[in-house]
Design a protein that fits this description.
289 residues; alpha+beta; Uridine Diphospho-n-acetylenolpyruvylglucosamine Reductase, domain 2; Enolase-like, domain 1; 3 domains; 4-stranded antiparallel beta sheet; 13 helices; 36% helix
């Protein structure tokens, strides 16, 4: 049962932060509400004041700036990301990932900022953003700070965001012509069992792996980069990389803190990470042809 609460609609982000400071633990920020209202209905949390961020002008803006960064406002919905021309042109892989987020209702209402701040371990966008080396901008009534995405998540349902900070935008730089990527997910429920994001940058002749970034999500307490797997493949000629792909996939799986849950056992998830790391690598490399 959803208990009564009061909704506040501040005019700007600093006003929202000030309201949170005023009401303290009796208040929280509200955007899409797809996760928040669910846990409130279940009685897991109780807030008497919800501070609505959706009405703050410009907080859902998606833009591409003169410095070559795509900037995504915190209250942009999954549906807006899926259809926005800037995302489709500069970050098409994000368009594809957003198409498969949850269901139509969540995509139309749920916000990207809410998704990241809730830190539900089964988040597809969170895993993808790691291979872009994305940053989040956090704003309070006192200051604004930028946090690398890889430092943002602490654990399940926990981030470095302070209670009075609003996630105002995500910033990422689109890949150049020498980089291609892939996102592979698997699951039989609405929330995925696992997700593997991978980006490969090849040298000028497209024969050597100049850089590679691999992230794995949905299997443990938070999405994380598979740095040991990256180290196996970085700098190798493509032919050698294919021969050492099993080694890299094993390194990606062994570096995880896999958790058994309704979506599968830890052992099952670990083995599936190996499979999907290999698939993601081959899917990214074939895009250079």
């Amino acid at each position: 049962m959803l208990r009564p609460f009061e909704i506040h609609q501040p005019e700007d982000v600093r006003g929202a932060s000030a309201l949170l400071g005023q009401y303290g633990e009796d208040a929280t920020f509200y955007a899409g509400g797809t996760e928040l209202l669910l846990v409130m209905k279940e009685g897991l949390v109780r807030y008497r004041h919800l501070i609505d961020l959706k009405t703050i002008p410009g907080l859902n803006t998606i833009s591409y700036d003169a410095e070559g960064w795509v900037r995504i406002g915190g209250t942009a919905t999954h549906g807006e990301l899926m259809h926005h021309e800037i995302v489709r042109r500069h970050v098409p892989i994000l368009t594809n990932v957003e198409r498969k987020v949850a269901n139509v209702r969540v995509r139309n209402v749920g916000t990207i900022g809410g998704n990241l701040c809730f830190a539900e371990p089964h988040s597809d966008p969170a895993t993808l953003f790691l291979v872009f080396d994305a940053e989040v901008e956090l704003t309070s009534q006192h200051a604004t700070r930028a946090v690398p995405m890889r430092e943002f998540f602490v654990g399940p349902f926990e981030t470095v965001r302070q209670p009075d900070e609003v996630l105002t935008r995500i910033r990422l730089r689109p890949w150049g012509d020498r980089t291609h990527g892939a996102y592979m997910k698997f699951g039989i429920h609405e929330r995925p069992t696992l997700g593997v994001a991978l980006a490969v940058t090849l040298g000028g002749a497209h024969t050597t792996i100049e850089d590679i970034r691999i992230a794995v999500g949905c299997v443990g307490p938070k999405p994380q980069r598979a740095e040991a797997a990256e180290a196996v493949l970085r700098g190798l000629p493509l032919a050698d990389a294919e021969r050492r792909l099993d080694e890299a996939a094993t390194a990606a799986a062994e570096g995880l803190d896999a958790i058994s849950d309704l979506h599968g056992s830890a052992e099952y998830k670990t083995e599936m990470v190996k499979v999907f790391t290999r698939r993601a690598f081959r899917d990214a490399v074939v895009r250079f042809q």
